[in-house]
Amino acid sequence: MTNRFAPFPAAASLTVASLLLFGTTSAVTADGRTLIRAGSLVDVEAGEVLGRHTIVVEGETITTVEEGLADPEDGDTLIDLSGHTVLPGLMDMHVHLTSEQAGAASYLERFQQTPADATVKGLIYAKRTLLAGFTTVRDVGGETTAILAVRNAINRGEMPGPRVFAATASLATTGGHGDRTNGMRPDLQGDPGPKQGIVNGIEDARKAVRQRYKEGADLIKITATGGVLSLAKSGQNPQFTEEEIRAIVDTAKDYGFMVAAHAHGAEGMKRAIRAGVTTIEHGTYMDEEAFELMKEHGTYFVPTISAGNFVAEKAAVPGYFPEIIRPKAAAIGPVIQDTFAKAHRAGVPIAFGTDCGVCPHGSNAQEFLYMVEGGMAPMTAIQSATVVTAKLLDIWEETGSITAGKAADLIAVEGDPIADVTRLQDVRFVMRAGRVHKAPAD
Predict the structure, then answer these.
(1) Pick from 274, 295, 348, 382: CA 20 to 30 A from residue 69's CA?
(2) Which of 425, 390, 395 is nearest to 411 (CA)?
(3) Distance of CA 410 to CAs 67, 93, 315, 407, 428, Å?
(4) From CA 363, how far away is CA 306, in angstroms rounded?
(5) What is the C-alpha separation between 137 and 430, in angstroms, rounded?
(6) Contacts of 126 (CB under 8 A, 6+ apart)
(7) Distance of alpha carbon 167 from alpha carbon 144, whole angstroms
(8) Whether 171 contacts 222, CB under 8 Å
(9) 117-119-121 Cα angle (round to 5)
(10) Contact status, residue 334 vs residue 312, Cβ threshold 8 Å
(11) With 90 as the cut, is the pLDDT of residue 11 above it?
């Protein structure tokens, strides 16, 4: 099995008490075996909550999962979570780690913020996301040098954070949702092209994908329709031709990339689905034809209900958004949860995603409540953030369940998250690739 996860340097062997003292401030890897006693264990593959188990970890990897609460041997480190429910680390398929929405002031950042500033923010938000129980994320659009620096520092074990799959700059058309020069005065707009992620035509499409490969991206993100927070009038008009999207997808396949498509309007998302994108993000005005196309093509829906609810709430606050954005936020936000419910009933494949960076980082698990309110069973919602996401990212053989041979990505909560999914908003223990980042106090 290929190990895609960079190793972490090992620390000296620790007693249980000293391990727990590190709390949320440091990460610790114990020498030898670590025994984790779980009061309950969520088997996401079977869709069951099991009773007492012991998870044995060596280095970055789960070596065995045993029934009952085993006793440690000499040299073992024991982590007693016998009063907790243990789950595999959660995954979020739609975050923006290098920024966070702060109202109208956010629109000055492109003039004031340097890539170094974005990198610092990214490291702060990455740690916050990890401590919320999310051990893997897909960052679908951010300042290129910043998100790559964040990803690489985490992979080298220099900084705490989730495993990051980074899209770097989104691909958009001139004036489209991902065109960062929207709203600038004309002499500052210039004429950005494929290097900056702006695509107009087939050749631009191919070149833009190849540029992302050159930069070191992990996937491609396109803005197939208008968006809520861009300084442009429409939030849902189609913004690529189907031929342009197909050129992006075909070129992406040559370089081993999946393609994620931001889409609110139905026509733009249907073009993207037919052209072969992997995921539809937001999907606000998805219709019955889109549901059927997604099932036919195996396209995943990443709902981001959290962001929809957040922008709808903030649209009611005078001055929070520029006036061109307020009506889009007020109209689109409330629709996403209802669309999610319809898509789930229709049998569309759903992968967990929040759009944190629009909504606050660290609030990721609130999405589970919105999904359950929309009619999804709690276990199914948890599977959408573990089994489904791991298969989407093609890392199911390496993580996504509590299974011997997989990475030791583990979290724990008090109580039963199946009976009360809001328990996932209060994660008490986080281990990522065998390294403890958060532990409950004695």
Answers:
(1) 382
(2) 425
(3) 17, 18, 37, 9, 11
(4) 9
(5) 15
(6) 97, 150, 154, 159, 160, 161, 162, 164
(7) 8
(8) yes
(9) 70
(10) yes
(11) no
